[in-house]
Amino acid sequence: MPRGWLLEAHSSREGESVVLWLKEEGSGRIHRREVPWAPPFYVTGPPEALRKLGQDLAEDPRAREVRAEAIATSLLEAPGTLTPALAVVPARHGLRTALAEALDAAGSYTTFRFYDVDLSAPQTYLLERDLYPFAPVTFHGNDVGAREPPETLEYALPPLPGRELEVLLRSPSPGRRPRMDEPVRAVRLGSTLLQEGDERATLLALQEELHRQDPEILFTHGGDAFDLPQLYGRARALGLTEETYFLGREPQPFALGRPARRFTSYGRIYHTPPASRLAGRFHLDVDERFVEDVGLRGYVDVARLSRLGLQTVARQSPGTAFSAMEIARARQMGVHVPWKKNLPEREKTAGQLLAADRGGFILTPPVGVHERIDEFDFSSLFPSLMVRHNLSFETLDCPCCPESPRVAPGLGYRSCTLREGLVPRTLRPLLERRLYYKARKGETTGGLRERYDELGKAWKWVLVTSFGYQGYRNARFGSIECHEAINAYARETLVELARAVRTSGGEILHGIVDSLWVRSPPGKEPAPWARELGERQGLPLSYEGRYRWIVFLPHHGHGLGVPQRYYGVYEGGEMKLRGIELRRSDACPFVKEVQREVLALLAEAPGTRAFREAVPRALALGARHARALREGSVPPRELLLPRRAGHDLKEYAVFSETVSALRQLKRLGAPRGAGEAVRYLLQDRHARDWERRVVVEERLRGDEAYDREAYGDLLARSFETLFLPFGYTLGKVREAWGWPSPRPPKRSPPHSPERLEQRRLPGLLG
Amino acid sequence: MGRTVPTYREALEERLARWEREFGRGLTDPKDREGFERLLRGARRCVGPATLLSTGDLLERIVLSVLLDLYREGEDPAPSR
Questions:
Q1: Which residues, including other chains, have CB under 8 Å from residue A214's CB and lie 6 or more apart?
Q2: Touching check for B33 and chain A: CB below 8 Å?
Q3: Contact yes or no for A558 and B47 at CB 8 A
Q4: Beta partners for residue A628, in sequence order
Q5: What distance in Å separates the CA atoms of residue A680 and residue A501, rounded to the nearest whole number?
Q6: Does residue A197 sit in the same domain as residue A244?
Q7: Would an 8 Å CB–CB cutoff place A725 in contact with chain B?
Q8: Which long-range CB contacts under 8 A does A117-122 form with residues at least 24 apart?
Q9: Within-domain flag for B60
Q10: Three-state SS across A476-522?
């Protein structure tokens, strides 16, 4: 029987089967298999209503089959509890959600509950056949079997040749938005430039060249939003058809995949362009990777365990992957997956609410520069706590263990001692995986080390989101109580560690949730000490390193330390930066570059004394750049300010730089809305004219004048950020640079009402 | 993330802002002013431990923080910026 790898599984165009793409070992030949697959979703409800629904559906063309079954619907019930249900098989895969929504509406959204609705057909296929993306397989006809489980830590990957794809237009589109009226001039595929003069010939040449080179992966920069939609849009305009023109390995609709969407996270609006996925070939848009430092290796590993395709994993948040893994685990535990979550928060008194929702333990650090500071971090603290204390939505205050000794500190929620919960069961292998890759990274060098680093990072991100999902209202397998319990344990853990450090004679400087900055007592070797402290608490505590120096930064208003703003250099020379311009997404390249130089200069200082001595030199370095800025000789491209539109243009009430930029983009025919990124040069910050306040990147020629005063402030402010603890306010920095203080605004200062009154009084009297 | 309740830090800042607005504005004597600012600082300095207190009473947290700060004042002058 031939051996090879399963690359991907997706629905067929007709939506009645699953298409499998296999790569044969040795020859590298690609095999396509199509397996009929029509998975049901399930509906539960009152018997009479279910019977009626079954009758209606028997005549509904949207349902292929309806049958009565009994299924396990909840982990909260005793194992073996079954509920009568209707298994509904949609006529086509694509009808799954629409049909469920229609039935839900027919039941007035209260009568029925639904299960397995958002498990896609390929997902259920992979789960039921014990298959997964990139599985090493043997295959014979439609019979495909994995040779090892997805959890395998060391495995061989198929060769995955990749090519870069880039579409070039006759006149470049502003902001690389697809423009259906603009012909494709040429297409670059790897090192091959396809340019036939005639556009139609160029497009056909691309298909032919793709077929010839047959890469597994197409890499693009912005291909989701531009390259692929542009290619297919033009193909349609030139009369090519979906049946004959395709860039994957089989025909698919010209309108690819999911449309653009928006979502809000932590109060910020994000915009994601449409996902342009190909059939039988991977399209990876490098600009759309959700997490930047996770490489291909990491995404492949996450795809294997989540059973989501590579093209999905690389575009979605790590939380989506974690969710998929929970689903897989729930299905293994024999439970079907609820469609919309139906687990309300328990009723609490106001006092309980305040006691419960308290977040992590965070200290107020002492402002200023410090030396001989060690940093200790609990690695993957939250997931470790969930596993260690069996914290899961269904294990909290379970009926079986009223006397459980596992009690969330300060909250009193108990967790089960008899059954391991879904969340810990899902997390345990992931934690082990991350620790394994992390350890291997430490034991290897070169390319191997890089590989383990990528793998470790991918899981770090997934593990980080696993906690957030406990309190997220759309998370299927989370509850707010679980979220609170984890926080309570986490606070206890850090406080416990701080106490242990104090009793050994150490000094605590700062602590955030899972990290502690301490001055270790003399004679204690920090690395073994960290191990010892961690072992005492039964959680992996790692020694991150000793700082040559670290600066904790103050709040601009009240002057006390803020937890997440600091910068420091480890003894090895590596820097750790939080909340300063270099780490901020809204700083311009010029300011970042200057700050980088400043930090490089400061990094040389072995301790606090040398650091303080280096500060004047850092300011002198700044003065040189400030001079260039004031002379107008900094290239405008280095001054582009990245911003994210907070609203759509019409929703802005106040004129601002962003409004100016959005208006210009709209006029250029490349409008942007809430959540989308814009970059612009600040031309005149006081201009009331939207054409003059900024210049958007798309309009930039490169020889524009910029607002020297405004950029001078931005540069000076970046120095204030670093050196405020040493007395360098914005004004002091400008003074040190011999840069005159800004003129006060022309308006006269407002008078207080009292004074107006006084001036009028004599007049009234007289 | 759908937090139902503001964090202690948020609640504290809100309360301190109100104190500043309604009470602090009326302090005309510079010595009073200085003392008042010292008091605000004391409340902010102990945010970490105050979070650990399982109580719904914001004032209880602030009072403990400020008292502790006062006790330390003699031996340990206010941290300078």
A1: A30, A161
A2: no
A3: no
A4: none
A5: 49
A6: yes
A7: yes
A8: A117/A41, A117/A339, A118/A337, A118/A339, A119/A39, A119/A41, A119/A327, A119/A337, A120/A11, A120/A93, A120/A96, A121/A11, A121/A15, A121/A18, A121/A37, A121/A38, A121/A39, A121/A93, A121/A96, A122/A9, A122/A10, A122/A11, A122/A18, A122/A309
A9: yes
A10: CCCCHHHHHHHHHHHHHHHHHHHHHHHHCCCEEEEEECCEEEEECCC
How many domains would you assign to chain B?
A: 1
Tell me the Cα Rg of chain B.
14
Contacts of B8 in chain A (CB under 8 A): 358-359
Residue where a domain terminates, one of A561, A578, A595: A578
Report if residue A281 sits inside a domain. yes
The answer to whether A646 touches A659, Cβ cutoff 8 Å, is: no
Beta pairing class for A217-220 and A282-285: parallel
Q: Give the residue, A467 or B65, on which the prediction is more confident.
A: B65
Give the pLDDT confidence score for residue A177 in this predicted structure.
72
Kindly list the strands in the beta sheet with A63-71, ordered across the sheet, starting from the edge strand earlier in the chain.
Answer: A63-71, A83-90, A41-44, A113-115
Structure confidence at residue A343 (pLDDT): 45
Question: CA nearest B7 in A: which residue?
Answer: A358
Intervals of chain A under pLDDT 70: 172-176, 256-273, 290-292, 341-358, 468-476, 741-766
B54 interface with A at CB cutoff 8 Å: yes
Write out the residue range of the structural domain in which residue B45 sits.
8-73
Nearest CB to A473 within list B2, B8, B44:
B2
Local confidence band at B80 (pLDDT 50, 70, 90 cut-offs): very low
What is the distance in angstroms between the CA of the first residue and the CA of the last residue of chain A? Answer: 112
**In angstroms, what CA-CA distances link A336 with A82, A437, A628?**
11, 32, 65
Q: How many CB atoms lie within 10 A of CB A314?
A: 25
User: Which of chain B's residues have a Cβ under 8 Å away from the Cβ of A517?
Assistant: none
Q: What is the structure's pLDDT at B1?
A: 39
d(CA A145, CA A32): 15
- Would you call B47 an interface residue with chain A, using a CB distance cutoff of 8 Å? yes
Give per-residue burial for A260-280: e unless 16+ CB within 10 Å, then b: eeeeeeeeebebbbbbbbbbb
Contact residues on chain B for A361, CB-CB shorter than 8 A: 48, 51-52
Yes or no, beta carbons of B52 and A495 under 8 Å apart: yes
Least Cα distance to A697 among A761, A631, A639 occurs for A639
Could you tell me if the ipTM is greater than 0.90?
A: no
**Average pLDDT score over chain B:** 82
Residue A480: give its domain's CATH number.
3.90.1600.10
Sheet of A641-644: strands edge to edge?
Answer: A641-644, A677-682, A694-696
| A468 touching chain B per CB within 8 A | yes
Cα distances (angstroms) measured from residue A178 to each of A181, A414, A677, B52: 9, 55, 16, 54
- Domain identity same for A86 and A182: no
Chain A residues with CB inside 8 Å of B79's CB?
A: 366-367, 560
* DSSP label of A419: S
- A491 and B8 within 8 Å at the Cβ level: the answer is no
Number of domains in chain A: 4
Subunit contact B3:A364, Cβ cutoff 8 A: no
For chain A, say whether B38 makes contact (Cβ under 8 Å).
Answer: no
* Secondary structure (3-state) at A618: helix
A641 three-state secondary structure? strand
Which tokens in the block code for residue B40? 């605000």
Q: What is the span of the domain harbouring residue A49?
A: 41-118
Name A551's Cβ contacts closer than 8 Å, sequence gap at least 6: A368, A369, A370, A566, A567, A568, A611, A722, A725
Q: Count how many pairs of residues, chain A against chain B, have C-beta atoms within 8 Å.
A: 67
pLDDT for the residue B81: 39
Residue B39 lies in a domain: yes
Both tokens of A214, joined, read: 């047959």
- Distance, CA of A513 to CA of A691 (rounded, Å): 47
Provide the 3-class DSSP secondary structure of residue A654.
coil
Specify the length of chain A in residues: 766
